[in-house]
Amino acid sequence: MLLLDIVLxxxxxxxxxxxxxxGLTLQYGVARIMNLAYGEFLVAAAFLAFxxxxxxxxxxxxxxxxxxxxxxxxxxxxxxxxxxxxxNRAKTQGQLEVDSILATFGLLFxxxxxxxxxxxxxxxxxxxxxxPVSILGTTVALNRLLALLFAAIIGxxxxxxxxxxxxxxxxxxVAVSATAARLVAIDVRTASAFAFALGGALVAAGxxxxxxxxxxxxxxxxxxxxxxxxxVIMGGVGNLLGALVAGLILGLVxxxxxxxxxxxxxxAATYLIFLAVLLVRxxxxxxxxxx
Amino acid sequence: MNMRHAPWLALGxxxxxxxxxxxxxxxxxxxxxxxSMLSFTALAAAWSLFSGPTHYISLATVAFFGxxxxxxxxxxxxxxxxxxxxxxxxxxxAVALVVGLSTLRLSGIYFVIxxxxxxxxxxxxxxxxxxxxxxxxxxxxxxxxxxxxxYWQLAVLTGAVLLIAWLISRSRLGLAARVIGEDETVARHxxxxxxxxxxxxxxxxxxxxxxxxxxxxxxxxxVDPAIAFNPMISFQVVIMALLGGTGSLWGPVLGVVPLVLLxxxxxxxxxxxxxxxxxxxxxxxxxxxxxxxxxxVQDWWPQPVRMPAVTAPRIVDDAVLAVNGLxxxxxxxxxxxxxxxRVEAGQIVGLIGPNGSGKTTVLNMISGALKxxxxxxxxxxxxxxxxxxxxxxxxxxxxxxxLVRVLGSMTCRQNVEPAIAFRARPSSGNALDETADTxxxxxxxxxxxxxxxxxxxxxxxQKRVELARALALEPKLLLLDEWLAGLNPTELEEGINLIDxxxxxxxxxxxxxxxxxxxxxxxxxxxxxxAGRLIAAGQxxxxxxxxxxxxxxxxxxxx
Amino acid sequence: xxxxxIAKLALAALGLSIVASAxxxxxxxxxxxxxxxxxxxxxxxxxxxxxxxxxxVKDVNAAxxxxxxxxxxxxxxxxxxxxxxxxxxxxxxxxLATQDKVDFILPPWSTGLNLAVGPTFNRLGYPxxxxxxxxxxxxxxxxxxxxxxxxLGASKPGADALAEVLRKLKSEGKIGDKVxxxxxxxxxxIELATAARAAFKAAGFNLVLDKSYPIxxxxxxPLLKDAMASGADTFVAFSYPPDxxxxxxxxxxxxxxxxxxxxxxxxxxxxxKQKFGANAEGVxxxxxxxxxxxxxKAYFKRHAEAIGREPDRWASPVTYVSLQMLQQAIEKVGKIxxxxxxxxxxxxxxxxxxGKIKLADNIMPIVWWVGxxxxxxxxxxxxxxxxxxxxxxxxxxxxxx
Lengths: 291, 559, 401
What we know:
The complex is a heterotrimer of chains A (291), B (559) and C (401). Chain A has helices spanning 2-29, 38-56, 60-89, 93-119, 142-164, 166-176, 178-183, 188-211, 221-235, 240-261, 266-280, and strands spanning 132-135, 138-141.
């Protein structure tokens, strides 16, 4: 019973972690953009959901239909306008990494600044689908369960899309080596823009889903960026299935530590697991050797 | 190097004098801004010590800063203050050693995030300890250290970091770090003990960060994990250092000073639009100042070019390699099986066979890049199998790579110098430049190209640089991995002559080669491999005529 | 080359404020503050501190200003963002005092930042109205820095007030002796939990669950399941705003219905009522106010009109009180004499929205520690000796889905 309880609660929490990490693994793994403003976009989506729900009375799930394509377009534009010059300028991948870190660090402040002007610094929270669901005698919140389901669907769905379709193959090729992909006539820039925009759409979906149950404010983006980074790195950069598995592992570990050991050690356990995974597999659970 | 640093040094000295006198005239606010500047300069310079040349971007700055702050909070009222600072530095070094040893296998983004995770882990553990063992979280630190004294401590500390950074940049350690940053594999094969170099730098850098934390802590009266381990500090330091440009000693200063002033200016005048403006300024800088402030400065301040002096080469010694029963498998794939052969002094041995027959694996085992599963390798009677590449390199085996590996952003001379500095009988100072230039001339690189970044060279010239770097180790045995591949007929002719001349000077060579004309004209002996096994060995003509060799080549998938 | 460029930048950074300060004759009173508009503290500062600074300035100026020697001086504000960073906060205070030469400085938000700027306030001789600083060492601080005033009390009286409420319920036979307690791993949560351990023990309670959790914990389910399993009918959480919301939400989802449900910071926020609506009914938390006081009611109304939302029911009125005290102290002294204002704050009696207030050893005498949502308002429950304290409603109704 306790075990079942831990597993279910852990999976639900892990689903949320995986959900917020998947966009980043695409953006970093394929488009090679280390997006430090990632969490800010997530919070922006949460604010959008809040505004639609409390101001217009639109359910967040309906909001997804509007926000996800919108985020796709916005991120596509960001990539084409702001990041392509950096991609063109960079001679090596290392240089692109440094440049994208610096540029998105600036972007982080802009997005956060706009959110502060619009919403101020205080906390926001609204309740949606905060109703209990009983599974095998364990209670979980429907909105959190939904986040897990979305994470699983997106993770497995995109994984299949990437491994079974032509476009997917192109994207994976770019993730492995942009130079080599070019040699086999893959349009690297289009593939990268697509991956970055898709990542942006995923983070918007994540932001809307977590806004149903988390309390947030304009300054919280960096917390999500960091959590997402941990999950992405642990799963192996660019690997959606890796992000899903890593997220679930973290959720399970945190829940187990909280129930069995000491809630004060949950975050310590997270980082310990993360560090341990990297020490054993220096490129993450599903990562291929980088060099 | 000396010439280039002289004006900087003078400028630095003047600045230091101005810096020291500041508290006597400045208001509290100016002093507070100056404290901010100094603390970030110290952190950014300490960060650049390790991360600048090696290109390992560390987000662990605040872990060490926080450790220092906590050391001050715990020890501040128990020990005399100077002792607190020493202890803070030592604790920082101790943690850095543990961290350094555990992160050796990581590189790139994995290292970056690992260091971030580490910081958070330290913070969580400190919190847990304080809550569960001490029953509180914050620590009060009532030390009446006036602003001016904190300022002076920071000034001395910053001076010390810059001085150490300058000394290191002139030392073998600094050279090693730069090569690691360019290409860690090359570094190892140039005789550099990369583990030692990375950990030493990391620990020195950590010590300074910890002391900075300890100096700053009394300013806040109250230290808790959220204050001491605020991750924004790590990010700010990285941003400031990158903005300044990490390639130069003064980069951190040039990044910190304008950024702190910019932060102040925006905070003071636009408190409500601070974030938006900061972001906008930031992006402007990234797009219009791509190489940092240092890049801007270097555009006005061209680097002096000096002509190389040439002296006679000196590359001969006895060399004997004995390989016995060598074997290596990758998972189920047997790459090399029970291979034995010898290389006599002054001999060129050709190692040939179809693609995938295990030739490069053999070279990798000899040079230390791979550890053999079975068998032994002896160099001049000394067993070397299983030694790390840098050790093998200093013992006298140099190599080139199948895909040419030069350090692209470094000049040709800088490509060669690390090997001279780290070989068994190292040179330093001016001799370094001279020897490097001699070697480059020896392999036929035009003198005018000595100061060119290696990435701008033609293919053959890059191969020349790589060869010069190998020769710089004063090797007993040289391993050439398809060094002649991809050259045009004229270049091939030159290359063959070059290798031949090295043999005449007494160097022993193993060459993996597909260019059969070269093999016939250069090699005394040949070893022929197929599917990981030796199929023929002996005099070149005889070995190549062996029926099994003919079959292997004609029957191979891509001979 | 380098130096002149740097010097220009430096001048640009400092210049504007120097020019601004030179123009000030004493026809207005300049008040400055640095508050966390960004960073982790922005959430708390944006609810409790900043709106009250803005409201107070608006109120004062609407009434003509602060009367100094028979002349009404308008309040002019200089505002900075400390970015939730100790070093920035110290620097901002220095800037306000030595560059902007403001007449008075209002404090930042949070215990940590108030302690960080304490020595600077003290050295510069400005009164330091540390409102949002809850520390057990407040009496010691007040001695060390006689210019500092502490308004949110210490954890011991807080824990005692809560224990008093619970003991009464126990003596009436309404609850058993088991208490489940969780606390956030930050100074506030830990100090309160430590004090509560002693207070609950003295009141004859038995702590069947006593756990702390890290700041930023995103899933409260494990904690609450442990609390449910503990069989306690009293649940106490010394929590921060996001945790308070998450704990309440999770309790609702899990159908965890202890007879007494207490969450700390954030319970008194308008956000809580907005999010939980009727479900907030009966929840206990830190804070509370005298709902019968017309002055406070008027304050609530003004706050809602000026800021666009209601104030929180804990530190917001206290913040406003501290500002009223500052204003009255200045008026009583009759000139901008900071040392005299400090003296007046130490010894004077002030007429505020919370009634007549006289600080005892620089410490605010009225601190509501237990409040409860009753009919859509967060009323003060304990300490019961305060004017307007209401009886606790028992038991808390079950969560409605």
